[in-house]
Amino acid sequence: MMKFCVCMKQVPDTQNVRVDPEKGTLIRKGIPVITNPFDESALELALELKDIIGGHVTVLTMGPTSSEEVVRDALSLGADRAFRITDGAFAGSDTLATSRVLGKAIQVTGPYDILLFGKQAIDGDTAQVGPEVAVFLGLPLVGFVTDVIEIKKNCILLERVTDWGRERVLCDYPLVITVLKAKNRLRMPKLEGIIRSFKEEIGLLTHKNLGLQPEKCGLKGSPTRVKKIFSPETRSRVHFIEGSVEEKAAEAVRLIKKLVLAD
Amino acid sequence: MSAYRNIWVVIENLRDNIHPVSLELLTKARELNRTLKQNTVAVVYGHPGKNSIETIKRFGPDIILQLLAVYPGYCSKHNSDFIESGIFSGTEKKEDGSCENFNKNYTENGLEHGWLNYRNIELLSKMTLQAIEEFKPLVILCGATSFGRILMPIIAAGAKTGLTADCTDLTMDGELLLSTRPAFGGNIMAVIVCESARPQMATVRPHVFKSIPLDNIPVEKLSNKNASIENILDKNIQQNVTVENSLMDDSTGRIIPAKNFSLYIGNKESDVRVITRHYEIQPFRTARIVESIPEDLELDISEAEIIVSGGRGLGGPEGFKLLEKLALKLGGVLGASRGAVDLGWISHAHQVGQTGKSVSPKLYIACGISGAVQHIAGMKSSEKIIAINEDPEAPIFEYADYGIVGDLYEIVPRIISQL
Fold first, then answer.
1. What pLDDT is attached to residue B271?
2. What is the pLDDT of residues B335-362, one digit of tens each?
3. Fewer Cβ in 10 A, N or C end of chain B?
């Protein structure tokens, strides 16, 4: 039986975040949290593969209590099993430390045939965790996958993007995939799924059951740390073009001609 | 920690030339070394074409480090024949002392494994890790392209060191690299340091830094053909070979591992020292590339001088038909926000922003784009930005040079007709 594992993250909805213009700090109050969109693609891909070839889908998330929502949603959509990794010792983890924790969780709850990650999380935007977990587990990696061309019992044919076009790659199991986009949007839950998601128990994983030493985790286990934070500079004030529609268009044309012809 | 020295720049190929971001980073490394006073090392994988080497040299690295992979059990007697092509090959010493060329597929689980070649990012990582152990670089930089964003984390995890992605600025504080990058979706800037782990690694997006060749002559734009990215054999690199450490089997007839020798190739025309290193790589399980589908170069908007961009404010895909007319009149290309792409109104190739392309055109016209920070991150290096939006409070107006509050469906057609 094919075993899939999808790692998912709850992130602040960074598209809708605002900065306090006076203090230059983030307005953290009432920031909505969402499931990382790339992880939704990864989950959708896993569920589609399960539809085609059958199997079992486990979802893992590393985060505070609120992130339980991420895995419950996944269960409502057809995931079979869910774990949340949580431990105060993991606070302040950079990508290397996070990858170590996720790698351990995968080892402890596995084995799996296909590990799926979203290409990047929209808060950190590093795209590093998927590849670093692959190294930790000693598995082949296929990054930036956009499509599964064919899945068989012993191998899978994937399509991925590169800077110069696309590539089709063939690999056997187990392997790690980072997903850029699934062909279809994440599916909607059915009623049975939603009911089931409330009944299903979500396993909790801490440093103890992962066999990790707290002194080597979190901030202490992270080679990088944030030295300073500051507000990004904004451009100088914009010049608004006023007037009627005709006047605005005319002025725009004048500007464009000047800007395009100037060398 | 002081055993770690020099700034390495990973050179990435693009079609039949060097990816511009590698040249931007060579320039930046040169600048950092003006105070650090160590070497700039251009790291090259496989066999680049002569054009590529000449291009790299114009950007002033002190050393070009060429990394090659050889099969375990490599025979030293035939070192002059090993440079055949990008394909993993080698020779095998037989019992009677003669040598035989072989090309092996590595097969496991009945499946032929990634034919090991210089397009395999995991192979490049394994070579680099051995080079890191041998040469101990202080810093490694690479472009944050789809190549670099896979290669660098694999190397960083293997070296158990820190990597900062998508940096917008790099400075040195003594031997400490200060990497500035946007965080929290670009709403805040963070300076990241990797205090004790080495090497210190960072990726930088294209167009963040400027590339300045030593002779100040601008590099011509990349050629417009869909060349394959197979590495080209270059026998010219073999000229003026001075073998410093001669190769010998020892008296027991054992084969000396390839990494115990290197060829120093002096080139009388420049002071760049080229060091070639061969590393034995054990076969490993990896994905195999079965098909390459190059994409139409016309869709690469990142080099465009004029971009007319549309967002969700267009209300539908037909908005792009209107913007396309404007783009064509100006000799520019179409851009798009992630919102428009996600809704399927235009293909991802046009997406500008943190998860799309970074652009730095002379003129960026944003229509119906609200100005989410991730979009701004991809176009704020534009020389001039004109924004058209119905909402006077739209964040795009905080970044634009000129703003028009109005209905783009009224303004844009009038602009087109008057141009």
1. 62
2. 999 888 888 888 888 999 877 888 889 8
3. N
The reply to whether residue B154 touches residue A132, judged by beta carbons under 8 angstroms, is: yes
> Which residues of chain B from 89 to 148 reach within 8 Å of chain A, CB to CB?
108-111, 114, 122, 145-147
Contacts of B194 in chain A (CB under 8 A): 223-224
CA B255, CA A61: separation in Å to the nearest integer? 50
ipTM attached to this prediction: 0.87
Q: Is A47 exposed, middle or buried (0-12, 13-18, 19+ CB in 10 A)?
A: buried
Cβ–Cβ contact A228 with B under 8 A: yes
Of A17, A169, A239, the CB nearest to B184: A17
pLDDT, position B162 = 96
Task: Take residue B376 and report the two structure tokens written for it.
Answer: 């701004």
Preceding amide of A223 cis, omega within 30 = no
Residue the block writes with tokens 């410093």: B244
Most confident of A193-202, B103-112, B262-271: A193-202
Q: Which residues pair with B34 in a beta bridge?
A: none
Could you say which of A94, A172, A240 has the minimum Cβ distance to residue B403?
Answer: A240
Mapping DSSP onto H, E and C, the string for B132-174 reads HHHHCCCEEEEECCCCHHHHHHHHHHHHCCCEEEEECEEEEEC
Q: In whole angstroms, what is the distance from residue B402 CA to residue A255 CA?
A: 9
User: Distance of CA A81 to CAs A9, A78, A136, Å?
Assistant: 16, 9, 23
Radius of gyration of the CA atoms of chain A, in A: 22
CB contact under 8 A, B372 and A15: yes
In the block, tokens 């009038």 appear at B414
C-alpha closest to that of A108 among A58, A69, A45: A58
Q: Is A85 helix (H, G, I), strand (E, B) or coil?
A: strand
pLDDT tens figures, A155-189: 999 999 887 788 999 998 999 999 987 778 889 99
Tokens 């395009």 sit at which residue?
A260
Which runs of consecutive H residues, i.e. helices, occur in B294-381? 318-330, 338-342, 373-379
- The nearest alpha carbon in chain B to A185 belongs to B342
Residue the block writes with tokens 């100040």 = B216
Q: Which of A128, A229, A239 comes nearest B188 by C-beta?
A: A229
Looking at CA atoms only, how far is residue B299 from chain A in angstroms?
10
CA–CA min distance B92, chain A (Å): 28
Q: Which residues of chain A neighbour B162 with C-beta distances below 8 Å? A: 94, 96, 222-224
The predicted model gives B381-404 an average pLDDT of: 90
Residue B159 Cα distances to A132, A162, A178, B88, B125, angstroms? 11, 25, 21, 24, 10
Q: Which residue of A has its CA nearest to B400?
A: A238
**DSSP code of residue A173:** S
Sign of CA dihedral A233, A235, A237, A241: negative
Q: Which of residues 36-75 of B touch A (CB under 8 A)?
A: none
